[in-house]
Design brief:
The protein has 13 helices and ten strands. It is an alpha+beta fold. Helix 5 runs antiparallel to helix 9, helix 11 packs antiparallel against helix 12 and helix 11 packs antiparallel against helix 13. The chain binds flavin-adenine dinucleotide.
Length: 402
């Protein structure tokens, strides 16, 4: 077992070890050296996107029938982890190019929709998933964006916020409340839109974020946005159960988000491990102080546990014929990993003393970056509800009187 990377006992195949080493090399030589600048300039790192695409690290999960390499989720997770060790932003881009909205389109889309989305991610587009609204965060089903049937297609009106990649993504998967010709509500559906092509799709204010500053979090506005029937993503059970089906696709994104947190923590741990051997106080390396040894031991335990949960959740895709990872495993992985990673990065920063608090040190950036993962993509509180509902085999309504 290595002291930081995935242990060989994980049973990675030779091909997976090869993917992991190739990703590690790209991360260390190309992505890492640019990470501070991406954070400082708050610019979307197009050169990193190009590097990922050239290395074959976008569209990894696209099947061979659609021109992709047909890699597993775990293969993609290995790449995301390596990117996030050195740059959380690039880790997130790798998630969305492999296991975000793309998973929903590959699972539910028509042949034409699958081809369209596959083409985008294989070229490095990071599709945006547009669910959250100012009045509908954790209570996502209370969204007010509406899609009214007009002829064969729909007209969408509404506004989403905190949409990752808004303004840089080309492909958008937008969730909306669906109404038929007579104004009767049918459920929640997914609609595809393409930046610069779909009239009525525009972008508003960008959030000034604490971390992960190289990816815009933006308002996405739909104003009389007309989509033809070919852009309606209809889950197998139709609009009535469409929301549950579409949210299932989020299990993929949750595994990806957990992996970015894991990568950030693993990267921070590696920096701390090196530093404690080099830094001397009281005439000896600080690694010789038991106070820090136990911190390192705790960090390694949390990392290995987080890695086990995350890889297991990634491997659950396909079990029982599901195109997505298991909901409870994905939630467990994201809860544990996001919370443990905050602790690990914080402890790594502590070991650096004042140097950890300097903006010259990557840990300052990693500390801000890792804080997000208990919030975005389902908060740690909401995900506990997902896990509890599985354990208790109960639907756990959160609304009063329901
Ligand atoms: C960096 C970032 C990127 C994001 N990217 C996207 C994106 O690309 N697309 C998208 O659609 N959304 C995105 N989001 C939005 C994200 O999914 C929401 O922020 C999240 O679902 C929580 O919603 P909220 O912020 O409105 O918090 P609220 O729902 O208002 O929650 C506030 C607090 O109350 C708690 N809470 C709420 N309900 C319950 C309950 N029933 N039980 C216990 N506690 C509860 C929450 O856990 C939280 O602590 C992103 C968010 C961030 C920070």
């Amino acid at each position: 077992m290595t002291n930081s990377g995935a242990p060989r006992s994980w049973g990675l195949t030779e091909d997976q070890v090869r993917i992991q080493s190739k990703a590690r090399e790209l991360a260390n030589e190309v992505i890492g050296p640019r990470a501070a600048e991406v954070d400082r300039t708050e610019q979307y790192p197009w050169p990193n996107v190009e590097a990922l695409t050239e290395a074959g690290f976008t569209g990894m999960t696209v099947p061979k029938s659609l021109g992709g390499p047909g890699h597993s989720f775990l293969d993609a997770v290995l790449v995301v982890e390596e990117m996030a060790k050195v740059c959380g932003v690039t880790g997130r881009i790798a998630v969305e190019c492999n296991m975000g909205a793309i998973s929903a389109v590959l699972a539910y889309g028509t042949a034409a929709q699958q081809k369209l989305a596959a083409g985008f991610v294989l070229e490095g587009d990071k599709p945006a998933i547009c669910i959250t609204e100012p009045g509908a965060g954790s209570a996502a089903s209370e969204m007010t964006t509406r899609a009214d049937r007009k002829g064969q297609g729909y007209v969408l009106n509404g506004m989403k916020h905190w949409i990752t990649g808004g303004g840089v993504s080309r492909l958008h998967l937008i969730f909306a409340r669906v109404f038929d010709q007579d104004g009767t509500e049918e459920g929640i559906g997914g609609f595809l839109a393409v930046r610069d092509e779909t009239p009525g799709l525009s972008f508003g204010r960008r959030e000034p974020t604490m971390g992960l500053r190289g990816i815009p979090e933006v308002e996405v506005i739909m104003q009389d946005m007309a989509v033809g029937p070919h852009m309606v993503l209809l889950p197998p059970s139709g609009f009535k159960r469409g929301f549950a089906d579409l949210m299932n696709a989020y299990n993929s994104q949750r595994v990806g988000a957990g992996t970015v947190a894991l990568g950030l923590a693993a990267g921070a741990y590696e920096l701390a491990l090196k530093f404690v051997k080099e830094r001397h106080q009281f005439g000896r390396p600080i690694a010789e102080f038991q106070g820090l040894q136990w911190m390192l031991a705790d960090m390694s335990v949390q990392l290995e546990a987080a890695r086990s949960l995350t890889y297991r959740a990634a491997q659950s895709r396909g079990e029982g014929g599901s195109p997505f990872p298991d909901a409870a495993l994905a939630a467990q992985a994201k809860i544990f990993t996001s919370e443990a990673s905050i602790r690990v990065v914080s402890d790594a920063l502590q070991m650096f003393g004042a140097a950890g608090y300097s903006r010259r040190n990557p840990l300052e950036r990693m500390y801000r970056d890792v804080r997000m993962f208990t919030i975005g993509g389902g908060t740690a509180q909401i995900l506990r509800t997902v896990v509890a509902s599985r354990i208790l085999e109960m639907k756990l309504p959160q609304r009063r009187n329901s």
